């Protein structure tokens, strides 16, 4: 009987930024289907999710895909539940109100490949600074692109796993890269981002390269763009609007809840959202067509399609939890859609 390796992946309880955890479960004659993944448990006292005297937390499988790096392997993304089966307080996925998958999300995940020895991004000299940003974005060549072997391997592995990666590119700083993932359904979009992050972390191990998800790892005073996780989103109202007025109403609904969004858009975002480097200030809200300095950008493609398309919230940072980002966006858009419908 063939045996399969199921890598159960979950988010711990560390604050302000949760980390990935995983462990392997061996199953005999496994079908490869999500419904045949058993519930499992772990020691929550070791992950900041339970006290030692009552330490069991449950792992509920919610997404599965092949693990291309392991023979007979599968990657199983899980929600964390309390021992009584209720969602754990760290479970952002359970807060998403999108049962009919009406919301579609495309996340643009930026990150730095980080050299643990120099404590700098790949491509940065051990002493001093590289040439200013400009030649690195979407670059090619050994003088400007650093770590391509890692990101190419990551792309292949993600595609082999069946993740819906829609593209990759070098970003504006040496060693800074991006991948984009799209899914019809907020929960699956979050699942796929987390699994892709997991795969990138694991690939980095084999190169002795760390993955730095911090939104401003070079410091607030450094003249480099930070790292974001821009959230492109739509629902039926946005995809079929055919009206600038509908887009204005939905965008304006974000203005009164700036603090609520920033609260789940990633730690230390004040270091990134300064009004410089293609960002709006953290305490301000703006939107505009093709405006990368706005809080929300209306893509030119949306306008060209007769105001039928999507919006891009540029504020979520690279370390944000896509589940929590999606949950907050959905809540705001739904409140605006109800007013538009009325």
UniProtKB/TrEMBL annotation:
<dbReference type="Pfam" id="PF00120">
    <property type="entry name" value="Gln-synt_C"/>
</dbReference>
<protein>
    <recommendedName>
        <fullName>glutamine synthetase</fullName>
        <ecNumber>6.3.1.2</ecNumber>
    </recommendedName>
</protein>
<comment type="subunit">
    <text>Homooctamer and homotetramer.</text>
</comment>
<dbReference type="InterPro" id="IPR027302">
    <property type="entry name" value="Gln_synth_N_conserv_site"/>
</dbReference>
<dbReference type="InterPro" id="IPR036651">
    <property type="entry name" value="Gln_synt_N_sf"/>
</dbReference>
<comment type="function">
    <text>Catalyzes the ATP-dependent biosynthesis of glutamine from glutamate and ammonia.</text>
</comment>
<keyword id="KW-0067">ATP-binding</keyword>
<comment type="similarity">
    <text>Belongs to the glutamine synthetase family.</text>
</comment>
<dbReference type="InterPro" id="IPR014746">
    <property type="entry name" value="Gln_synth/guanido_kin_cat_dom"/>
</dbReference>
<dbReference type="InterPro" id="IPR008146">
    <property type="entry name" value="Gln_synth_cat_dom"/>
</dbReference>
<dbReference type="GO" id="GO:0005524">
    <property type="term" value="F:ATP binding"/>
</dbReference>
<feature type="domain" description="GS beta-grasp">
    <location>
        <begin position="4"/>
        <end position="85"/>
    </location>
</feature>
<dbReference type="InterPro" id="IPR008147">
    <property type="entry name" value="Gln_synt_N"/>
</dbReference>
<keyword id="KW-0547">Nucleotide-binding</keyword>
<dbReference type="InterPro" id="IPR050292">
    <property type="entry name" value="Glutamine_Synthetase"/>
</dbReference>
<dbReference type="Pfam" id="PF03951">
    <property type="entry name" value="Gln-synt_N"/>
</dbReference>
<feature type="domain" description="GS catalytic">
    <location>
        <begin position="87"/>
        <end position="342"/>
    </location>
</feature>
<keyword id="KW-0963">Cytoplasm</keyword>
<keyword id="KW-0436">Ligase</keyword>
<dbReference type="GO" id="GO:0004356">
    <property type="term" value="F:glutamine synthetase activity"/>
</dbReference>
<dbReference type="GO" id="GO:0006542">
    <property type="term" value="P:glutamine biosynthetic process"/>
</dbReference>
<dbReference type="GO" id="GO:0005737">
    <property type="term" value="C:cytoplasm"/>
</dbReference>
């Amino acid at each position: 009987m063939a045996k399969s390796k199921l890598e159960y992946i979950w988010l711990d309880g560390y604050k302000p930024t949760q980390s990935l955890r995983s462990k392997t479960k061996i199953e005999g004659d496994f079908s490869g289907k999500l419904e045949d993944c058993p519930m499992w448990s772990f020691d929550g006292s070791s992950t900041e999710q339970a006290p030692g005297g009552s330490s069991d937390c449950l792992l509920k499988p919610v997404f599965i895909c092949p693990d291309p790096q392991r023979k007979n392997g599968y990657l199983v993304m899980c929600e964390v539940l309390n021992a009584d089966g209720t969602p754990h307080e760290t479970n952002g996925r359970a807060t998403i109100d999108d049962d009919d998958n009406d919301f579609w999300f495309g996340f643009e995940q930026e990150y730095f490949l980080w050299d643990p020895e120099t404590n700098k991004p790949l491509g940065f000299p051990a002493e001093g600074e590289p040439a200013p940003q400009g030649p690195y974005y979407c670059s090619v060549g050994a003088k400007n692109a650093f770590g391509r072997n890692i990101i190419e391997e990551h792309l292949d592995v993600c595609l082999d796993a069946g993740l819906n990666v829609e593209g990759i590119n070098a970003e504006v700083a040496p060693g800074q890269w991006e991948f984009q993932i799209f899914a019809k359904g907020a929960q699956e979009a979050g699942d796929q981002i987390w699994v892709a992050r997991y795969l990138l972390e694991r690939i980095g191990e084999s190169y002795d390269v760390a993955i730095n998800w911090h939104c401003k790892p070079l410091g607030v005073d450094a003249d480099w763009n930070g790292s974001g996780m821009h959230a492109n989103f739509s629902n039926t109202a946005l995809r079929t609007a055919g009206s600038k007025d509908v887009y204005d109403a939905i965008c304006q609904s974000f203005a009164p809840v700036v603090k609520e969004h920033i609260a789940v858009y990633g730690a230390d975002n004040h270091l990134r959202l300064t009004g410089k480097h293609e960002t709006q200030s953290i305490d301000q809200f703006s939107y505009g067509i093709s405006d990368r300095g706005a809080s929300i950008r209306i893509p030119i493609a949306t306008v060209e399609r007769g105001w039928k398309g999507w919006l891009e919230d540029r504020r979520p940072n690279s370390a944000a939890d896509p589940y929590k980002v999606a949950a907050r966006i959905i809540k705001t858009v739904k409140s605006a859609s109800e007013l538009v419908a009325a």
